[in-house]
Every structure is written in structure tokens, then in C-alpha cells.
Design brief:
elongated, alpha+beta, STM4215-like
Length: 152
């Protein structure tokens, strides 16, 4: 049975190439586990190294079966960017400022994770992407994924 940490570590490993500088990747300064650092009320107070990609497992649904149970893990991947030129540049990117933008980050994360088989665990499937919040200079989106496993 895969543990939360094993699933999270596998996803972080898949995202690690996004730490490279363009054109090889989007250049995220921080790729790590998410520990509840922000909500819509405190986006300007968040202390992370932008741009950032943060990952956590936020739910497990267990469906009992005959000899095996099916476990569906819900995973959230947060993409976070900031830009002194404003929230629009934090969303759309700004090459001059070295800001990839949340939209490019979402696309890059989806290319790395959607339909990706994690050996011994299962296949990641994209579910949706939603705006978490924004401020005058920051933008944060959450991409949601599911991975279903069979467990004894």
C-alpha cells in the first residue's frame, strides 16, 4: 500500500525538471510539499520563493471491494507566481522580469503529471484547475489530480 509520502515524493520527482531554466523548463525557485502556508485572505503575507510549485495529498476515499479495496487519492498542486508589474503579469508571465506566469506553470505541470504512470502506485489524472486567489502582485492557482490504487 503506497503511503502518502511515497505518492507525494513521486509527484515531486516528476515536477523537479520544472526547476530548470528556460527553455528546458519554467524555472520554479521552489518545488516542495505544501504545508498550508496560504489562503485567500493572506496571499500578500505568504513567505515562499516565487515562482513556486507546492504539492499535497488532501483526501483519500476508500471504496471497499471483495478482497481488494480501491483507494482514490486527491492531490493538489499549487502554482504560485508574483510580478511587480501586477497580477496580470503574475498570471500571464513576463519574460523581461523572469516571471513564467501561473498560466504557463499550470500547463507545464499538466504536461508532467496528467496520465503519468507512477510505478507501483497508479496513473495520475487531471481533474480541474482553479484560482485560489490573487493580490496586486501575486497569483495562485490549484491543479487537482486523482490517483486510484488497489489495496489489500
Amino acid at each position: 500500500m503506497p503511503l502518502y509520502k511515497e505518492i507525494e515524493d513521486a509527484i515531486l520527482a516528476l515536477l523537479e525538471p520544472l526547476r530548470a531554466k528556460p527553455p528546458a523548463g519554467i524555472y520554479a525557485n521552489e518545488i516542495r510539499s505544501y504545508g498550508g502556508e496560504f489562503n485567500t485572505a493572506n496571499i500578500d503575507e505568504v513567505v515562499i520563493q516565487f515562482p513556486a510549485i507546492l504539492v499535497n495529498i488532501n483526501e483519500k476515499i476508500i471504496e471497499p471491494g471483495g478482497r481488494l479495496d480501491f483507494h482514490t487519492n486527491s492531490i493538489s498542486v499549487y502554482v504560485c507566481d508574483q510580478n511587480a508589474r501586477g497580477e496580470e503579469s503574475a498570471r500571464g508571465g513576463d519574460a523581461l522580469a523572469g516571471s513564467p506566469g501561473a498560466y504557463i506553470m499550470l500547463e507545464s505541470v499538466r504536461r508532467k503529471l496528467h496520465r503519468q504512470n507512477i510505478p507501483g502506485i497508479g496513473v495520475l489524472l487531471a481533474q480541474r484547475e482553479v484560482l485560489v486567489g490573487y493580490s496586486q502582485t501575486r497569483c495562485i492557482y490549484r491543479a487537482e489530480y486523482k490517483i486510484k490504487t488497489k489495496e489489500v
